[in-house]
Amino acid sequence: MAEAILDQVHVSNMFNLRGIVAVVTGGGSVSAMRFSAEMECSWYGYKGIGLMMSTTLMSNGATVYIIGPVQADLDKIAKIYNDAAVQSGKDGRMYGLAGDIRKKKEAIRLAEEVGSRSPYVTVLFNNAGISEGRFERPKESTAAAFQKAYFTNLQEETFDNVMHANATGPYWLTFAFLPLLEKWKEAGFTGIGGRKFAPQVIMTSSMNGWTKDPATSGFSFPYLYSKSAIGHATSTLAHELLPLDIRVNGIAPGLFLTEMSAPGSSDALGQSQFTDFDKFKFAVPCTQPPPEDGGLPVPAGSKTDMGALVLFLVSNWFVNGETVLIDGGEQNTMAETILNEVNVANMFDLRGVVAVVTGGGSAFQAAYFNDLEEEQFDNVIHTNATGPYWMTFAFLPLLEKWKELGFTATGGKKFVPQVVMTSSMNGWTKDPATAGFSFPYLYSKSAIGHATSTLAHELLPLGVRVNGIAPGVFLTEMSAPGLTDSLGQSHFKAYETLGLKVPCTQPPTTDGERPVPAGSKTDMGALVLFLVSNWFVNGETVLIDGGTLLVHPSSF
């Protein structure tokens, strides 16, 4: 019996991937692909985290389909490693498939192509990504300098392109490959190596989906937005796919030496020769030992670090909805905003204050894939996430002028210039019921929720605060359409149709009525006055949800 137990937990059994079929987007590439506005694609090279994943899988016996833009490049890298596998007696093989991972119709085509070659898929790695729209921090602490760096030099198409590749593309691919993942279950989960594996989707997000310093995102807000969105969507998709018994997990890499982080440094085998570590503008506490032939310790992850994580996730049944941070401790060195409860004792006389309020975007209630269009994703993300980014920097000069006036309102109270974002509790929850069953809405609110603290970090030199409000259920035309009177007051009563548990209710408005499981205008008004009048809160998103996330799975 003891011998059998030791045999079961031996690496040759746990990680024997023969019979496993894996699909890796960007699997023969750099960690980034570049797509032009004309939808043409080209590689930076053949090196990156995707190649680390693909070579680990095939080295341990899996059949791996790598997806990228150019077939000839994919064939070239596949031949290099297939030849090596034959020479070393390894069973795994790699095959390239060209495709545009941003498009819904391409996701369908790619799944059909893999399905024509294999009866099932064991694991889908949504790894491919791009980084565009990088900025240089302004040297002057003026609104004009910040507006030029973060706003004028950044194009709408750049935001769209990065969001499509890094966030919405993985959504389309997940559901396009769902039938093939389900067929792996029908095959009995069993690889030729004798080990049972759970069908799984693994997302590549990034440590910068959580950090507040955009240095970790290569100084790209489009990249940061996209990785925040896919990072949160990982746990929500895991929640939603529970009935299918398909896992969804994530990998959040820190610095790995690839063609994205160190362009031009990789050889034909995808191995980086980069040594100029001083170029990186952040610290990595946990370094790799120096090469055997001498040199400095390497402040970056290695192919064996990534490979070990890949094998752990693929072989594990008991991890679901988890994103594993693999960043060498970088998050431990990033500045975090930690606020204790603030006892508000301020006057709320706002005479003289000028405020601009934008209306929120509406959620789209649609099925996961077939009834959901790319334009719907774009419209929601434009309205709820990228739109507030443009508005913030467009109004920056006017916010700066408030400082020039001495901050003083007519009512005698000094107020700090501030941007207040409306995100949502569903930027943190794993249950899409809190988002009105809309993944585009959930993606957008996750992105703007994280961007709040990052923008606060970036605007510190200007003395402009950025805070957020994350509402739960409020009775509006979004949550209860058609039941609002001419004064904007809702007369909705069918609370059970909301599909949510709200522990903290409002008292009934009249005798004999039920308590109201929603926020009120005075709840929201008090929070608005608190934020507008406060100097000591910055980078904070205040959750106002009646305790909903205490009883729905969340990461708040």
UniProtKB/TrEMBL annotation:
Transmembrane feature ranges: none
Swiss-Prot/TrEMBL keywords: NADP, Oxidoreductase
Organism annotation: Hermanssonia centrifuga
GO molecular function: oxidoreductase activity
InterPro entries: NAD(P)-bd_dom_sf, SDR_fam, Sec_Metab_Biosynth_SDR
Protein known as: Uncharacterized protein
Taxonomic superkingdom: Eukaryota
Claim: NADP is one of the keywords in the record: yes
The family this protein is said to belong to: Belongs to the short-chain dehydrogenases/reductases (SDR) family.
Database matches in Pfam families: adh_short
